[in-house]
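Side project, low priority. Logging it here so it doesn't get lost.
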Amino acid sequence: MNACRSFIVVPPIGDRYDNLSFQMRMEDELNGEFRGFKFVVTTDGSHRFDDFMLIPMLGKAGDNVTQPLAAYPDLETVETIALFLHRYLSEAPSRLN
Protein backbone atom coordinates (compact mmCIF):
# COMPACT_ATOMS: atom_id res chain seq x y z
CA MET A 1 0.00 0.00 0.00
CA ASN A 2 1.34 3.44 -0.92
CA ALA A 3 1.83 6.00 1.83
CA CYS A 4 0.00 9.32 1.69
CA ARG A 5 1.95 11.96 -0.26
CA SER A 6 -0.66 14.78 -0.43
CA PHE A 7 -1.83 17.09 2.33
CA ILE A 8 -4.17 20.02 2.84
CA VAL A 9 -2.83 22.61 5.28
CA VAL A 10 -5.34 24.88 7.03
CA PRO A 11 -3.59 27.82 8.73
CA PRO A 12 -4.68 29.13 12.13
CA ILE A 13 -7.31 31.79 12.61
CA GLY A 14 -5.91 35.28 12.03
CA ASP A 15 -5.72 38.04 9.46
CA ARG A 16 -2.09 37.38 8.59
CA TYR A 17 -2.94 33.80 7.60
CA ASP A 18 -5.82 35.01 5.38
CA ASN A 19 -3.35 36.84 3.13
CA LEU A 20 -3.32 35.00 -0.23
CA SER A 21 0.31 35.86 -0.99
CA PHE A 22 1.33 34.47 2.41
CA GLN A 23 -0.60 31.25 1.71
CA MET A 24 1.05 30.90 -1.71
CA ARG A 25 4.49 31.47 -0.21
CA MET A 26 3.86 28.89 2.50
CA GLU A 27 2.64 26.38 -0.11
CA ASP A 28 5.72 26.98 -2.28
CA GLU A 29 8.05 26.58 0.70
CA LEU A 30 6.34 23.36 1.87
CA ASN A 31 6.48 21.85 -1.63
CA GLY A 32 10.15 22.86 -1.94
CA GLU A 33 11.15 21.55 1.47
CA PHE A 34 9.31 18.23 1.20
CA ARG A 35 10.04 17.01 -2.30
CA GLY A 36 7.83 14.13 -3.35
CA PHE A 37 4.93 15.48 -1.31
CA LYS A 38 2.14 17.81 -2.49
CA PHE A 39 0.73 20.51 -0.22
CA VAL A 40 -2.27 22.78 -0.74
CA VAL A 41 -2.69 25.64 1.73
CA THR A 42 -6.23 26.93 2.07
CA THR A 43 -8.45 28.90 4.43
CA ASP A 44 -11.63 27.72 2.69
CA GLY A 45 -14.13 26.00 4.92
CA SER A 46 -15.67 26.70 8.27
CA HIS A 47 -13.22 24.99 10.62
CA ARG A 48 -10.18 27.02 11.67
CA PHE A 49 -8.34 26.75 14.94
CA ASP A 50 -5.53 28.42 16.90
CA ASP A 51 -2.97 26.10 15.33
CA PHE A 52 -2.31 24.55 11.93
CA MET A 53 -4.43 21.64 10.77
CA LEU A 54 -2.68 19.06 8.56
CA ILE A 55 -5.10 16.83 6.63
CA PRO A 56 -3.70 13.80 4.81
CA MET A 57 -5.37 13.07 1.47
CA LEU A 58 -5.69 9.31 1.46
CA GLY A 59 -7.58 8.86 -1.80
CA LYS A 60 -10.69 9.68 -3.76
CA ALA A 61 -14.30 8.93 -3.01
CA GLY A 62 -16.93 7.84 -5.48
CA ASP A 63 -18.40 4.87 -7.28
CA ASN A 64 -15.86 4.62 -10.11
CA VAL A 65 -12.66 4.81 -8.06
CA THR A 66 -10.34 1.88 -8.69
CA GLN A 67 -7.27 3.06 -6.77
CA PRO A 68 -6.87 1.82 -3.16
CA LEU A 69 -6.63 4.29 -0.33
CA ALA A 70 -3.15 5.41 0.65
CA ALA A 71 -1.80 4.49 4.06
CA TYR A 72 -1.59 7.17 6.71
CA PRO A 73 1.78 8.93 6.75
CA ASP A 74 4.18 7.79 9.43
CA LEU A 75 4.37 9.81 12.65
CA GLU A 76 7.93 10.99 11.99
CA THR A 77 6.86 12.57 8.68
CA VAL A 78 3.90 14.30 10.31
CA GLU A 79 6.07 15.61 13.15
CA THR A 80 8.65 16.95 10.69
CA ILE A 81 5.95 18.78 8.72
CA ALA A 82 4.43 20.13 11.97
CA LEU A 83 7.80 21.51 13.10
CA PHE A 84 8.22 23.20 9.72
CA LEU A 85 4.74 24.75 9.95
CA HIS A 86 5.31 26.06 13.47
CA ARG A 87 8.06 28.35 12.23
CA TYR A 88 5.28 30.46 10.68
CA LEU A 89 3.71 30.96 14.13
CA SER A 90 6.76 32.78 15.42
CA GLU A 91 7.36 34.79 12.26
CA ALA A 92 6.97 38.53 12.72
CA PRO A 93 3.80 39.82 11.00
CA SER A 94 5.75 42.49 9.08
CA ARG A 95 7.62 39.76 7.18
CA LEU A 96 4.36 38.23 5.94
CA ASN A 97 3.36 41.13 3.72
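Brief comment: The first helix runs from residue 15 to 18.
Revisit when time allows.
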